[in-house]
Amino acid sequence: MELTRRQSTVRWGLIVFGLVYALVPVLWVLAIALRPQSAFTSYPLPLVPTRFTFSNLKEILSGSNGIGWLPYINAAIYGLGGAVVTAVVALLGGYALGRYDTRYGRALLLVFLALSLLPDAARIVPLFLLYIHSGMYDTRIGVILAYATGSLPLGIWLMAAIIRQIPIRLEQAARIDGAGPFTIARKIVFPLARPGVIVVGTLAFVSGWNAFSIPLILAQSPNIQPYTVVLQKYIIQEQSTVNWTLLSAGSLIGLVPVLLVFGFLQRRLLAQGGLGAAVRAR
Predict the structure, then answer these.
(1) Which of 34, 49, 147, 157 has the largest count of CB atoms under 10 Å?
(2) pLDDT of 117-146, one tens digit each?
(3) Domain 70-280 belongs to what topology?
(4) What is the spatial distance between Cα 27 and Cα 182, in angstroms, rounded to a whole number?
(5) Cβ(269)–Cβ(198) under 8 Å?
(6) Phi/psi of residue 236, each to 5°?
(7) For residues 29 and 27, what is the distance between their CA atoms, to the nearest angstrom?
């Protein structure tokens, strides 16, 4: 259906507003990160600096006042670990709830959807008490599992919806041909559900990479803290000052891996055949 001139104008207006709303904060971070510290002499600061420098990025990674590579490596470990755990468990749980008609299956999916809306603050105190008594406090595996538990409810809910789109006749035909459960999972279910697994894993990775409140409480040792927690050193509360250039430079470095992951996975998702061939084959 062809849009009218007014509808087209409204649509493009909303698109432009969304782009401005999303990109202007990123441009501000970029402009401050690439600005010399001596340029903070007048306010408000211009969006486009008159001088550019990469010394702030170098200072963050290898300078005496920087945070080094370790906090970013820790964030990558937590993001990748949480993504793997979430993708695997969500696929298994989503298959069970999406393929089999259990008595309380739909109610359980609604519970998972509701749990995905809970903020991290609602989980920190129970996790803190649980980790203190189980010996998992201040450990990397504890932080990874905390990330995974936060991403799993939405992951299971999404995977259950994706599994329902896979025709069960494909699995029945494979069983008639003598295929076992593992063969069906490896050659039929997983290839068709792969786009959903990638989406669930990506959401879990981004959530783990950018998380702040959970590692702030559950990771007290400096050698296991991610960059989101370590960057607090540039906010000096006693003096009510903020080192904006280094704080923005550290945030900018943390933004790059997320953009690379989305750029890489976008091509993978577009390259997937999806369920079209399977549905036409029914």
Answers:
(1) 147
(2) 888 888 888 999 999 999 999 999 999 999
(3) MetI-like fold (1.10.3720)
(4) 49
(5) yes
(6) -95, 100
(7) 5
Would you list the domain boundaries of the chain? 70-280
pLDDT, tens only, 150-167: 899 999 999 998 998 888
Residue whose tokens read 């041909």: 177
Task: Please give the full DSSP string across the chain, using - where no structure is assigned.
Answer: -PPPHHHHHHHHHHHHHHHHHHHHHHHHHHHHHTS-GGGTTSSSPPSS-SS--SHHHHHHHHSTTS--SHHHHHHHHHHHHHHHHHHHHHHHHHHHHHHS--TTHHHHHHHHHHHTTS-THHHHHHHHHHHHHHT-TT-HHHHHHHHHHHHHHHHHHHHHHHHHHS-HHHHHHHHHTT--HHHHIIIIIHHHHHHHHHHHHHHHHHHHHH--HHHHHH--SGGG--HHHHGGGGEETTTTEE-HHHHHHHHHHHHHHHHHHHHHHHHHHHH--TTHHHHHT-
Q: State which amino acid sits at residue 240.
A: S
Torsion of CA 63, 65, 66, 70, to 10 degrees: 100
Q: Is the Cβ–Cβ distance between 29 and 252 less than 8 Å?
A: yes
